[in-house]
Design a protein that fits this description.
The structure is a single chain. Helix 15 (about 365-380) crosses helix 16. The protein has helices at about 45, 50-60, 70-75, 85-95, 115-125, 140-150, 160-165, 170-175, 190-200, 205-220, 235-250, 270-280, 300-305, 345-355, 365-380, 385-405, 420-430, 440-445; strands at about 5, 15-20, 65, 85, 100-105, 130-135, 155-160, 180-185, 225, 260-265, 290-295, 305-310, 320-325, 360, 410-415. It is α/β, with parallel strands linked by helices. It has a domain at about 5-15 and about 70-110 and about 230-445: Rossmann fold (3-Layer(aba) Sandwich), CATH 3.40.50.1100. The strands form four sheets. It has a seven-stranded mixed beta sheet, with helices on both faces.
Amino acid sequence: MDETVKITLPENDIPRHWHNINADLPAPMAPVLRPDTYEPVEPDDLAPIFPNAVIEQEMSTERAVEIPEPVRDVYRQWRPSPLYRARRLEKALGTPARIYYKYEGVSPAGSHKPNTAIPQAFYNKAEGVKRITTETGAGQWGSSLALAGAMFDLDIEVFMVKVSFNQKPYRRAFMESFGASCIASPSQTTAAGRAVLAEQPDATGSLGIAISEAVELAAQRDDTKYALGSVLNHVLLHQTVSGLETMRQLEQVDDYPDKVIGCTGGGSNFAGVAFPFLGERLRGGPKTEFIAVEPAACPTLTRGEFAYDWGDTGHLTPLTKMHTLGSGFMPPGFHAGGLRYHGMAPQISHLTDLGYIAPRAYGQLDCFAAGLTFARAEGIIPAPEANHAVKATIDEAIACRESGESKALLFNLCGHGHFDMRAYTDYLAGNLEAETSQMAEQSMALSGLPGV
């Protein structure tokens, strides 16, 4: 096994349970609040937009949550995903570090997002739902839910952030190929979209606005529910299938990570690879370090406030305590569209506040440079979002080279960049610019936080 590059598992080793980090928390999270009364949310408050099974998982503190067999059956199309030892990258960097990456780009949608799209579609179908509305940034989540809708015969309506809608026409084509509809957000379809366009006719959009549009439509019809691709507890729960597989794969080569790294926008792919290991640490296991990497242009964890905020721009969602830049913050149109969100998953925010997760931020030029270093060594072009994790991993590997330490570094390569070649074309042509400071815009958005 000394020269193993690709570490695999048979289909029968797909985990039978997801891991719920809520069972391991050393201190309880702040409750989710109703936006009108500031009282804790009850299950009935969420029933208009989520199916009951999802609501139960959102509030669960049970450590192991069973994965339904119909979901595991669909997972078999690409899971277990491979874990790679990045031997060629190690050699290129001249580092004694042992670099591993969990490759989620093997899914039909090319990212980790189907890990939660499939169960959310299953639970909605089981409760008689006919249509699901959602938002998407870079398009990975919209693509994944479109795929899930085809698997479970559901109508899918996707509001795609306008800047990404224009940058990535093939993501729209992917969604439509699976029968979903894709609308540029902000749009004239909803009151929330029309309100934004009335003030900013040329608005490039944000995930917060797209969420408002999707939630508004879901609340209007009894046969329609809303699905979210990141941030919420149940989404992060579903993603832990990735980290649980990784644990078994590392056992095969008798290794364990000293550091776990993932990019963070809403937090789902980071949680997916990190939470099973973090749970072990919280239960007295190895003192693994966890690094959450975000874009400098949307620095939620590194510059945001840990406070109650709305999850959307139109203030239709409950209030959650999270690291936030303010629900009114409009991120610039940098290419890592999946990381353009004003808030961070409450579970990740809570654990960061407790000191278990170390956040850092990078600019897009440094991340694209790191992504190409990785691609030229390993043969996989990462999604722009994943480049943030690649950059941090390379930095850690270089630190090992300088110190002479042989640490095990694990990161989640959450998707490939095949739909993002426009971004790479712009980078290689020198047309991408370093992001400028958004401090004034961030301060203005934070001034609108609710007075909780």
